[in-house]
Amino acid sequence: MRAPLLLPPEALGRRAFILAGTALFAVPHLARATPAEVAAAIKDVTAGAEPKPGRVKLDIPVMVENGNAVGLTVGVEQAEPRCTDLYVFAEGNPLPRVLHAQFGPAAGRTQLATRMRLATSQTVIAVARLEDGSFWTDSVDLIVTLAACLE
Amino acid sequence: MRLVLLLAAALLLGGAADKRSGYDDATQAVRAMQDDDSANPGMLWVEQGRTLWNQAVAGKSCATCHGVPEAMLGVAARYPRFAGRPITLPEQVNQCRTERQGAPALKEEGDEMLALTALIGLQSRGLPVAVDASSPAAQAALEQGHAIFDRRIGQLDLSCAQCHDRLAGQRLGGSRIPQGHPNGYPEYRLEWQGMGSLNRRLRGCMTGVRAEPFPPGSPELGALEFDLGWRANGLQVETPAVRP
Amino acid sequence: MARVLLNVPKTAKPGETVEVKLLISHPMESGQRKDESGQMVPRNIIHAFRCTYNGAEVLRLELHPAIAANPYLAFSFRAEKSGTVEMNWVDDEGVAGSASAALAVE
Predict the structure, then answer these.
(1) Which terminus of chain B is less hemmed in, N or C, by CB atoms within 10 Å?
(2) Nearest-by-Cβ selection for A102 from C32, C60, C71
(3) What is the pLDDT of residues B60-86, one digit of tens each?
(4) What contacts 24+ positions apart, CB below 8 Å, involve C33-41?
(5) Which domain holds residue B169?
(6) C67 → closest Cβ in A73, A104, A116
(7) What is the CATH number of the domain that holds B211?
(8) Domain covering C4-31+42-105 in this structure, CATH number
(9) Is residue A43 part of a domain?
(10) C83 Cβ under 8 Å from any chain A Cβ
(11) Is the pLDDT confidence value at A15 over 60?
């Protein structure tokens, strides 16, 4: 028996919900890094020193509609003491590391923009090393929702 | 009842008032990616298209007959065009290749076809979609496409119209449901982490409602793409668009 | 076919900070995906990148699978005199890529 042409709104809502639910189940379950792994990776980089909040800025949207390609900018604005290294970590991705940038003598601003993948809602952390040996950090807690239809 | 008929007539005539590109339903981040040619991944395919445009196959390249890519100004905006049946831009490219260049047809989802159609589409960027369905035969194809758009399909028993007409603008998952216009194809979808054609998107939608996708080259697919093109008349071509 | 889009201005003033925008076509296969037949697609990403200006190092990058497909990189260098900005990279399969541009400093 064919369903009537005009459905009450609730029925449409249910169908849309089922569609979204099916789409969610289609996403494979991935192993994830943990905050502890990221903390260990940071300790590796700083040789045990605790990075201080500040100096480095991590620019990434807090609400992410689609985790496949999320723009981020990371860098230290002040020219002195100069930033030598930038690290980015992701607590909820399968792997904790995202990138490591080293600025050479011909670098302009000690800043980099790129696009990253986000597996789920999580905290993304930036760590910067300055030429005086100090370490600084910034982090963003973000929410990742899924796009409407997954292929 | 009369009001319903009037509304239906208005919808059928494709009134521009409520017509909205998928760009307007995308997030700021996605729009920014599309707007910056140096950050839009679709431009990588356009770049490849430029090289292919000048590449001779059996002595003839696209440039041999068509000159520079800029000569394609306004062309993509008129596709699909009706010539006995709806012909899409990828079908036209393959017609040129097989009949004029004596070259094998390109796979629709291959990088080469995506590159060429992205290059040609870019030459219409900013121009309004202008699909001509004025002849009686074209009108018949349009009606067929429209009927497909309205038909419930698949295990989830959903029609294109239910999401993309009725629920357009509301949220599903994390994003807003667009009206489903093809004005940016081929486009870079974050979902695909790559470039794809309208055909690929329709296959994805149909699979999504657990329906058997129309086979490539089928009259149903041609009619549907024709209807979708016509339905977008007036919207700006955005190729290569970026979408979630 | 490896495609690259490099955006660098053609001229600059002495000591100016010059912006570089780079788009590289590469799937950046994370190694976390399964293909249609259920097989894990092996990891293949651009993992190392280097940029120099007139031979002096600008930027060195170590990239991980979290970097999105068709990577986009935007950074800057300081130009004291005219020269060439060069960059090169390599992926897990050993396939190398490069791009360069001339800059006139006046």
Answers:
(1) N
(2) C60
(3) 999 999 999 999 999 999 999 999 999
(4) C34/A28
(5) 18-244
(6) A116
(7) 1.10.760.10
(8) 2.60.40.10
(9) yes
(10) no
(11) no
